[in-house]
Amino acid sequence: MSEPAILAEGLHKRYGDTVAVDDISLRVERGETWGILGTNGAGKTTTVELIAGLRAPDSGSVRVLGLDPRRDRAALRQVLGVQLQHAYLHGALTVEELLGLYRSFYPDPRSTDELLELVELTKQRRTRFEKLSGGQQQRLSIALALAGRPQVVILDELTTGLDPRARRRMWAAVESLREETVILVSHAMEEVERLCDRVALIDGGRVIASGTPADLVAQSGAADLDEAFVVLTGKELEIEEESA
Amino acid sequence: MTTATAAAHRPGLHSWLTMIRCEAKMVVRDTAGLVVPIGLPLLILVMNASAAGDEEITAGRTALDLYILPLVFTIVTATIGIINMPSFLAYYRRSGILRRLAVTPASPAMVLVAQVVVSLVQAILGIGLAFAVAVLAFGAHPPVDVGSAVGIVVVSIAAMYALGMVVAALAPTPNSAVAIGLVGFFGLGALGGLFGGRDSLPDPLATLGEWLPFGASVEALSNAWAGQPVEAVHLLSLAVSAVLGAVIAAMFFRWD
Questions:
Q1: Residue B207 lies inside a defined structural domain of this protein
Q2: What does the record say about its membrane topology (chain A) (predicted)?
């Protein structure tokens, strides 16, 4: 009876000769926060792009709240909030102007003040996007993802390149999302452990393990999630360098 | 079963206006981008106006009225349409702004239309300023057939924008959009009288230039200024460019 928030089955996507996503299936229940964890090039971002309908899978299927991300594009856009990795915003517009623009796309948006408070940018409301620090830009981009009261939120590399303080603020913002289903793409163990109900460990375009963080640790016989990752993938989780 | 509440609601008028206001702020805050469409035509006007202003050709209209002003007006529409607009759109795509908008209910059409509206205002300002300077400083005259002249400016703007949209849709990077835009502008311009009359070109090139939108716009405006009937070939050239460009741009415009 209860339809999952996200149901992906046998997703496959290749670019030329490179297989980005080989075979990924996921079932995310409503209200859950899921971590997608993997090294660079594991297929995390492509998976998220398939879920968001930015790309079409070569085979397999995705449903988000029962909607096909490609066919029901317009309907999905109303209920999905996405923060993309490496997405820039209109540099010369202020925080307030950008919030106003994105809010205008939705029938019943969160108020500007609520959004500013949620990501702690109230003081920067009249600052241009290009003058914000990296952390502030990230936070604004989360606020924009939440502007339309989405039921499903996708956050791609939420805290990459942020200092510890900014990171904690972002975490607090994500923790405040209780009703929403959240997909959190990450390579930061601490973040996943703290925020996620369940984790899918992706390597070589496949889900190699999934479950609660505690399950994964137990399953691998490791001491913590960090070690579990190494045991399960045979790889160290390197710190990703922010590249332009 | 609770399928998403979503009856596909589309962003309404308020959203369109917000988008247009944001585009306008972006353009105004990018001061350097205003220099070419406003400054270059004025420069060409000032350099040529004093000699041409005294030389009467027909119907009380001087060379300034019949040759320089049609050229200057066309430069305004072409620089904004072919150079400025596509470089803005290519920058938006490159920086991920369009990709970011693609995961919202905003459609590509909103960004395109907002950019068109804002550059239309720029074109009107550029033409208005050039005409004011021509009249006040160099004694230029209004077109004999004002209605035709206005109509041709409108069609010319549509044609140039459509070409610009094609550049924006097809150029892989912002730099290539600027490069393609500049080459397109100077190419069409060279064949259309930007560097001196088309009479000095070899016949086939002169004819080609007259069929292409830059030359067609100059010729048609010149006819309207003299009060002569506008030739079908010029209107056809502008109309075909506008329609074909819009169709190609709509087919190929990408978010990323």
A1: yes
A2: Peripheral membrane protein
Would you say residue B59 lies in a domain?
yes
Name the nearest CA neighbour of B84 among B113, B132, B46, B123.
Answer: B123
Q: Which residue did the predictor score with more confidence, A51 or A190?
A: A51
Domain total in chain A = 1
Residues of A in contact with B5 (CB under 8 A): 78-79
Q: Domain holding A44: CATH number? A: 3.40.50.300
Q: What is the pairing mode between strands B56-58 and A80-83?
A: unpaired
Chain B contacts of A66, Cβ < 8 Å? 1, 3-4
Residue B88 falls inside a structural domain: yes
Query: How would you label A221-244 residue by residue, b for 16+ Cβ within 10 Å and e otherwise?
Result: ebeebeebbebbbeeebeeeeeee
Is A244 within the bounds of a domain?
no
A152 is a domain residue: yes
The answer to whether residue B31 neighbours chain A at the CB level (below 8 Å) is no
CA distance, residue B12 to nearest chain A CA (Å): 8
Q: Considering the domain boundaries, does residue A106 fall inside one?
A: yes
Residue ranges, chain B, pLDDT below 70: 1-9, 108, 254-256
Average pLDDT, chain A: 87
- Residue A241 scores a pLDDT above 70: no
DSSP secondary structure string, B161-191?
A: HHHHHHHHHH-SSHHHHHHHHHHHHHHHHHH
Does residue B9 lie within any of the structural domains?
Answer: no
Residue with tokens 């923060």: A83
A55-108: per-residue pLDDT in tens? 999 999 999 999 999 899 889 999 999 998 777 788 899 999 999 999 999 999
Find the residue in A nearest to B101 (Cα).
A102
**Domain extent for B118:** 33-252
Distance from the Cα of A42 to chain B's closest Cα (Å) equals 21
Query: Which member of A75, A90, A106 has the closest CB to residue B4?
Result: A75
Nearest in space to A39 (alpha carbons), one of A217, A194, A233: A233
Nearest CA in chain B to A141: B100
- DSSP calls for A49-90: HHHHTSS--SEEEEEETTB-TTTTHHHHHHHEEEE-TT----
Instruction: Centre a 10 Å sphere on the Cβ of residue A214 and count the other Cβ atoms it contains.
Output: 11
Strand-pairing partners, residue A36, are A185, A200
How many domains does one find in chain B? 1
